[in-house]
């Protein structure tokens, strides 16, 4: 069980290269925390390991975000210019004027 979690990256790294792995208090607490998360959120160790990859690897996070947008579970981020454009259009609608119906002084 511990070797499986280690292979998935769910244990702290070995402190010394080439040293025999010893599962001390720190490692066992990490395992207990992982098992608690798995139970609380009803996920497998592999799913938890993938969630950690999403949080730690920007390319993986971007790929998952793109999928989430494509399948409708996430909204595409709005760009600042789009927000400002929508805000200006809203202000024009609430004032009851449109740009075409409000000619500038020089256009008369």
From TrEMBL:
Q: Which GO terms describe its molecular function?
A: DNA binding
Residue ranges of domain HTH merR-type in the record? 1-33
Q: Name one GO biological process term.
A: regulation of DNA-templated transcription
Entry annotated with the keyword DNA-binding = yes
Keywords (alphabetical) are: DNA-binding
Protein's name according to its UniProt entry: DNA-binding transcriptional MerR regulator
Organism equals Nonomuraea endophytica
Lineage here is: Bacteria, Bacillati, Actinomycetota, Actinomycetes, Streptosporangiales
